[in-house]
Each structure stands twice: as structure tokens, then as C-alpha cells.
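From the thread on structure requests for the teaching lab: each student submitted one protein with a one-line request. Submission from student K.M.:

"Model Plastid lipid-associated protein/fibrillin conserved domain-containing protein from Arabidopsis thaliana, C-alpha cells only."
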Amino acid sequence: MAIPSCLKTGALMSPATGFNFSGSLMKSDSGFAVPTKLQSTRKGHRERLRVQAIFSFPPTFLTRNGRAEKQKQLKQELLEAIEPLQRGATASPDDQLRIDQLARKVEAVNPTKEPLKSDLVNGKWELIYTTSASILQAKKPRFLRSITNYQSINVDTLKVQNMETWPFYNSVTGDIKPLNSKKVAVKLQVFKILGFIPIKAPDSARGELEITYVDEELRLSRGDKGNLFILKMFDPTYRIPL
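Reply posted by the TA:
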């Protein structure tokens, strides 16, 4: 079998550029090609190409400062997109899609890999965006909707509490059961109408909640019905009454 001329001369042709490469490509210890930069030099009447490895390790986005800056940038983009949407009450389907895409980018840089093992989850959180129609109550006149909604979680006592403010101050408390390090099963126990009239929750008042992002300032969660919840920290010291 005839040996291709490029193997006789040791020169390889790049199909993408048409340049001839002399010698062999540099390899890393893992066997993967190192990023390279081609620099052309002239010697006499002949041209040749040198392969020079120029790379930095680790890349900026892998450093601690780089990750922190990326998280900050993505969070800011998400918060700016949420701001005009009245916690989601005025969000169009396109708005909801955009918020979901931005939320997934934030979730991808979650610094807390096992939220339920972290104290960051505990405390009182203010709801700033959701896709849940039952919480938003968008079909009601605006003056009958809760101005602010809070959710509190105490992992050590396995308690959860949802609270509304003006005009009705309704609330509900329940129990949580960890299913893994990110997800809990929720069983609501007692509703309080107007903040003080107790009503036992029906047995069907159950669900699941997965915490997909949490840090000192922001928490993202997704429910078992596909709803997205975005909350900001309000009071990290708050304890749910037992």
C-alpha cells in the first residue's frame, strides 16, 4: 500500500484552513489536545507554522471570585426581569417563559448543593415571584389580594408556614418530610383565617417542594405542580411557633 505523501514528509493538512502543520500537536497528560495558537513566522523564502500552547488554568469562571461574579450577574438579571411583574400577577406566557429560563441559569450556579443540610434555608422569606395562580389570585380585584406573602421554613423542627398580609392575614402551618437533600414532602395542618380563626386542613392538602437554589439572599423552589417560587430573605432569625 502506498504511503500518503503527507506521512512521508511529516506534514499534515488542515481541511478547515488549508494550512500545513509540521510535526505533532502537543498533548496534555490526560491525552486531550491543549488549546493552541498558531503563529506564522517567515524564514528566508520559506514559511512555516509554529504551534504554541497558550492557555491559562484554571479558567476565570472556575475560580471562587469568578463563580461569585457569575452568580451575582445572573441573579441581577433575574431580579430585574421580575421587578415589573407584580410578583407574577401581570406576567404574560412569554414573560413566564423568560423568567423560567433566567431562573434555570441561576439554579445552574447554586452554591448550596444540599439545601436541607444548610441553615440558609431557615427563616422568613418574602415571595417576589411565582407562577402559582392560587397564590397570585390574579382574578380577584387587586384590593382583595394579599399585598405581601411570606414563607418560613425551620428544618430542625420540620415545620413550614405560609403567611399573607393585608387585607386578610391568612396563614397556614404544616409539616415537612425530607425526601432527599433538596426536596421535601409537605403536609399542611392548620389554616388560620384572619390570622386567628383555626381551621384544620383537609388530608388532601399535600405537596412537594424542591429547593433548587439558596444563598443568604435568594431562594428558588419548584413545586410538584410545576410552579416556580422565587423568594428573598426577610428575617433569617424567624422561628415558626410550635
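TA comment: Residues 3-42, 49-57 have pLDDT under 50 and may be disordered. Residues 8 and 191 are 84 Å apart (CA to CA).
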